[in-house]
Specification:
- By secondary structure, this protein is of the alpha/beta class.
- The protein contains 15 helices and 9 strands.
- Strands 6-5-4-7-8-9 form a 6-stranded mixed beta sheet. The chain has a 3-stranded antiparallel beta sheet with strand order 1-3-2, with no helix packed on it.
- The longest helix has 17 residues.
- The two termini are 46 Å apart.
- 32% of the residues are buried.
C-alpha cells in the first residue's frame, strides 16, 4: 500500500503537483476495476496490477494522463472502449470531452467525491502523440494535415481473417500464407527414442566400454563412471495427398501444407489420383511458387479418377515403404475410391502395422450431419487414429497441432 507516501523525485518531475498524492493507489485501482467489471470489462488481477504499477512509476499530473494510463491498463479490445469511457466519466464527472489529446486542458476545479485534484496543473508537453496505438472513437472527419504523427489502427491478422473461409474462395497469395503458418506451428516437432546411445553426464545408464577403458588407468577400479542417454531423433512423417477431381478445391492448400512439412519435418510427400507420384524433391524449394509449379507438373494424372487402395499398396510395396515404419502418416482425401472396399481394408491394415499414428484429413468431415458412409472411407476408418475435417485454415491448423503432439 502507498498511504501517505513521501514526496519522491517522480512526483516532483511535473512541477511538484500530481494526482493521487497521499491516496491508497492500490485501493483506488481495486475500486475502479470493480466498477469496470460491473460494466462488463474483463478487469482482472493482471490489469489491476498493471494499473497500480503504472501509477507508481509515472504518477498522473492531470485527468488526461490518468485517463490514458487507465485505458492502456484495462482496455484490451476495441469493443470495450465505450463501456470504459462511461465508467471513467461516471467517476470523473467533469472530465474533458473525448477524444482526449495530449494538448487537452485539464479541469480547473474538481469536487471531492472521489479524489482531491489540485489546481493549477500544468499541461503535458504537446507533440508527444497519443500514448496508445489505437484510435479514439471518431467524432468528426479528420482534416488532412502535414503532421508526421500517425496513430495506426489495430486490425486482425491476415490468417485470423481467412481462418474460416473455404479454400476455393482464396487466391494464390492467401493460400501461400497457409504454408508460412504451418511452418511456424511445426517449430517443435515430436522426437522418438532410438536404439543408439550418446555419452551424457546426466544419463541414467552406465556406458560399460568407456567405463572399463578408463578403469585401466586406475588398476581396473572404476573410479570414473561414464554415463549415457538414448539418442532422440525427429519422428518421421509421411504425407499422402489425393489430387483427383473431387479434391480440386483443396489441392493447392494441401500442397502448401505438405511443402511446409518437407522443409521443417523432413517429411516424405506422395500424391495420387490413378497413379502414385513422389513430390518430396519438387516441394523442397525455397520459392513457394517454384515448388507449386514443379509439383503440379510432376503429377500428370491430377484431377482425374481415384484409386486410393491401389496407390497405398504401391507405396507399401516400393522401396519407400520402409519410410512408413514408425512414422506419423497423414492421408488427405475425401474417401471416394474406385477400388473395392475389401482392397482398401487390406491396404490400410498393412499401413496400420507399420505406422506409428494415422491421421485422415477429409474436407467434408466438418459438414453438419457428416457420416463416413462412402465405401472407401468406411473401410479405412477403423484403421485411423483420427478423422479430422480439413476445409479451412482453422481445420488444418488443428490437424497440424494434433500431428505435432508428442
Amino acid at each position: 500500500m502507498a498511504d501517505a507516501e513521501p514526496r519522491s523525485v517522480s512526483d516532483e518531475r511535473r512541477g511538484g503537483i500530481v494526482l493521487l498524492r497521499g491516496t491508497d493507489r492500490a485501493g483506488f485501482a481495486v475500486a475502479f476495476a470493480d466498477r469496470l467489471r460491473g460494466a462488463g470489462l474483463a478487469a482482472g488481477l493482471s490489469e489491476t496490477g498493471d494499473f497500480v504499477h503504472a501509477l507508481e512509476v509515472s504518477p498522473p499530473v492531470s485527468v488526461d494522463v490518468l485517463y490514458w494510463t487507465a485505458r492502456i491498463a484495462f482496455v484490451r479490445r476495441r469493443g470495450d472502449l465505450d463501456a470504459f469511457d462511461r465508467v471513467f466519466h461516471a467517476v470523473f464527472d467533469e472530465a474533458p470531452p473525448l477524444p482526449l489529446t495530449r494538448s487537452a486542458v485539464p479541469p480547473s476545479k474538481r469536487d471531492d467525491v472521489h479524489l482531491a485534484v489540485p489546481h493549477g496543473v500544468d499541461e503535458p508537453a504537446a507533440g508527444g502523440g497519443l500514448p496508445w496505438a489505437t484510435l479514439p472513437p471518431p467524432v468528426a472527419a479528420a482534416e488532412p494535415g502535414d503532421s508526421p504523427l500517425r496513430t495506426p489502427e489495430r486490425r486482425p491478422s491476415a490468417l485470423a481473417a481467412l481462418a474460416e473461409l473455404p479454400f476455393e474462395e482464396l487466391d494464390p497469395r492467401e493460400l501461400a500464407l497457409l504454408g508460412d503458418a504451418v511452418r511456424d506451428s511445426l517449430a517443435r516437432w515430436p522426437a522418438r527414442r532410438t536404439r543408439r546411445h550418446a555419452i551424457d553426464p546426466a544419463g541414467r545408464r552406465i556406458a560399460l566400454r568407456p567405463t572399463i577403458a578408463r578403469a585401466r588407468r586406475t588398476a581396473w577400479e572404476p573410479v570414473t563412471v561414464v554415463r549415457q542417454r538414448p539418442v532422440r531423433r525427429p519422428r518421421r512423417a509421411v504425407l499422402i495427398c489425393d489430387l483427383s477431381e473431387s479434391m480440386r478445391a483443396q489441392a493447392a492448400a494441401y500442397l502448401h501444407m505438405m511443402r511446409a512439412f518437407t522443409l521443417v519435418a523432413d517429411a516424405e510427400v506422395f500424391a495420387f489420383a490413378t497413379t502414385l507420384t513422389r513430390l518430396t524433391p519438387a516441394l523442397r524449394r525455397t520459392s513457394a511458387e517454384e515448388a507449386m509449379a514443379r509439383a503440379t507438373e510432376a503429377v500428370g494424372d491430377r484431377f482425374g479418377g481415384t484409386r486410393i487402395a491401389t496407390n497405398l499398396t504401391a507405396l507399401l510395396d516400393s522401396h519407400h515403404g520402409n519410410s512408413l515404419r514408425g512414422a506419423l502418416v497423414l492421408v488427405a482425401s475425401d474417401g471416394w475410391d474406385s477400388d473395392p472396399p475389401a482392397r482398401m481394408s487390406a491396404a490400410m491394415a498393412r499401413l496400420r502395422r507399420r505406422a506409428h499414428r494415422i491421421l485422415w484429413l477429409n474436407p467434408r468431415a466438418g459438414a453438419p450431419g457428416y457420416a463416413p458412409k462412402v465405401a472407401g472411407m468406411a473401410a479405412a476408418l477403423p484403421f485411423c487414429d483420427h478423422l479430422l475435417p480439413a476445409a479451412t485454415f482453422a481445420d488444418l491448423a488443428a490437424a497440424v497441432r494434433l500431428l505435432a503432439r508428442p
